[in-house]
Amino acid sequence: MDDIHIHRGYTPGAIGRVAELHAAYYTENWSFGVYFEARIATELSAFLSRYDEARDGFWTATVHGRIEGSLAIDGQHAQEQGAYLRWFIASEKLRGKGVGDALIGNAVQFCRDSGFPSIYLWTFDGLQAAHHLYRKHGFSLVEECTGTRWGVRVNEQKFELLL
C-alpha cells in the first residue's frame, strides 16, 4: 500500500481517531462498549496533555494523511516500573503490512535509546497477531489474571521486555 507514513509526536485529531480505532475493533470483535471507548479517550487525552518528547513516545501510522494505527510509550515511571506500552492498534487497512512490527520496533528502540530498564504492556488472551509481534520483539508473558480493566471480563495478560 502506498502512502503509509509513521509519525512521532502529537498529530491533530489523534485522540479521537485512536479512540475510534480501538472502539470499532474491540466492540466488533470482543463486545467492548462505551466504557472502553471513554477510557481510551480519557487516558490518551491525559497522556498527551503531559506528553514529554524526551520521556514519552507517541507514534501514528497514516494512510493518505488519515490515522490508521498508533502506539505509545508512557515513560513517566519508566526508571522505577518500566516504560508502559499502550494504545497499540492497526486498522484493517494496515494489518499484515508490517506497520505493527515497525511501530513496536520504533518503540523498543526509543526505550533502549532512553536507557529504560524494561517495557511492559497489558493485553488479553486471544489477540494472536499482537502477541506474535510482542514475542518477536522479545517480550515474554509474565502475568495472567481474570479481570475487567476494559469493562468486560477477559483473561488479562502482562508482557514484559527487559532491556
Automatic annotation (TrEMBL):
Chaperone among keywords: no
Domain N-acetyltransferase: 5-160
PROSITE patterns xrefs: GNAT
Classification via InterPro entries: Acyl_CoA_acyltransferase, GNAT_dom, NAT_camello-type
EC numbers: 2.3.-.-
Pfam families reported for this sequence: Acetyltransf_1 (PF00583)
Entry keyword Acyltransferase: yes
Keywords assigned by UniProt, alphabetized: Acyltransferase, Transferase
Primary enzyme class: transferase
Molecular function terms, GO-annotated: acyltransferase activity
Classification via CDD domains: NAT_SF (cd04301)
Annotated protein name in UniProt: GNAT family N-acetyltransferase
Organism taxonomic ancestry: Bacteria, Pseudomonadati, Pseudomonadota, Betaproteobacteria, Burkholderiales
